[in-house]
Amino acid sequence: MVEHVPRCLDLTRLSRRAGRTLTGVDRVELAYLKRLLKTSDAIFGLVRTRLGFLLLDRSGMALFDQLLTTGAWARASFLARVIWHDPVRRNVEASLRKLAIARCSPRGLRTMLRQNLPTGVHYLNTAHSNLNHQVLAAFAGLPKARIGVFLHDTIPLDYPQYQRVETPQAFRKQIKAVSGLADLVIVNSDQTAQDVARHLSAFGHVPPIISAHLGYDAAPEDSTMSLPDRPYFVALGTIEPRKNHDLLLRIWSQFSDDPDAPTLVICGNRGWRNEDVFKKLDRGVPHVVEHNGLSDGQIMTLMKGARALLMPSFAEGYGLPVVEAAAIGCPIVATDLPVYREVVGDIPVYVDPNDAYQWISAIKTLMLARSGLPATAFSPPTWDAHFSEVLRRI
Question: In terms of DSSP bridges, do strands 43-48 and 53-56 run parallel, antiparallel, or are they unpaired?
Fold first, then answer.
């Protein structure tokens, strides 16, 4: 780790996700927050709110970290309650305004940073939120500042058909800003590094790229989680097109008349552009259960009892659920993606995401086995190793 470096971590994503089940990208920003709080260096947090920017110091960041766990947010003002319909979001922003050491309108960002941040500050954006030319240019204009950006994947550009309509163009602008202004790009795998370099090169400049696998945090089991009364499989992730839930629902529809069929437990919030899947879930598919908003402990409990984790995704930036499953010895059936091969090797049973027959065969094999496939030894990547690699560079 580079010693005695003042750092400013962008906390916009966490502020917007407060009160919700955290996604993989959210967890990365949270991991960076917790690690920087353990350092002795000067640290700051930047948050983009509806009204402008807020700047937190170490104590404000520590209190924000506590509030993310307790949910004891301040009550918003009457004006904020009029502006915001989301009660959690408005209370989060009210709390952050009280914690801030400085605030400004969008136009005043560079001035606020110059007045409050020390020379040589390193800005870290780890979650794609608040990632734009305005913010990066404001930091680039500070004396001896450096900018590090974490790019988790390039799926919006490589697979636009799976995204919200506006996402690919917005992401393209982010990539352009990173190409022009970032001093270092952080990625989660060598595969992502190749994809990021390919897209950055289209804008004429590829900053240095560092690849560091994401750390694994084991969650304690939650005994309050009710498990299915028959053998079951788990599908984990946001219900969006690239996750390919439709394949699993078509397979389970074929099991509908089988009294001994396993249960499919789908864990994840509903996403976008997946109306046909949502309709099937609303009508009900025999032996299929849908859960959203589960805690890490509940998901851990589910995976430990599952015959396998099923991941038929068409594309992944990293695939944290696969790492989590491998770490606890839960069998995995997954699409043969390069990033899975890189991170968990030959542990999963790899199948074609378009071949229902292969999936059915793998599922039936696991049903016949008394306790799934034999567990394969796996040492998951650690956050210590991740930060040892990253923070010595930025």
Answer: antiparallel
From the list 316, 367, 374, 368, the residue with the least C-alpha distance to 347 is 374
Measured torsion, CA atoms of residues 258, 259, 260, 264, in degrees rounded to the nearest 10 = 80
- The pLDDT assigned to 371 comes to 53
Distance from C-alpha of 359 to C-alpha of 321, rounded to nearest angstrom:
18
* Phi and psi angles of residue 91, each rounded to the nearest 5 degrees, phi first: -70, -35
Specify the 3-state DSSP secondary structure of 282. Answer: helix
Distance CA 329, CA 175 (A): 37
Find out whether 193 and 344 touch, Cβ atoms under 8 Å. no
Return averaged pLDDT per consecutive 10 residues of the chain, 394 residues in all: 82 94 93 97 96 97 96 79 75 95 97 98 97 98 98 97 95 98 98 98 97 94 92 96 97 92 96 95 96 93 96 95 95 97 96 97 87 69 97 93
Angle at 346 between CA 344 and CA 352, to 5 degrees: 100
185: part of which helix (H) or strand (E)? strand 184-187
Q: Which residue has the tokens 């945090």?
A: 217
What is the rounded distance in angstroms from the CA atom of residue 343 to the CA atom of residue 260?
Answer: 35
* Opening angle at CA 235, ends 230 and 239, nearest 5: 130
Copy the structure tokens of residue 159.
């697979």
Domains of the chain: 7-216+384-390 (3.40.50), 232-368 (3.40.50.2000)
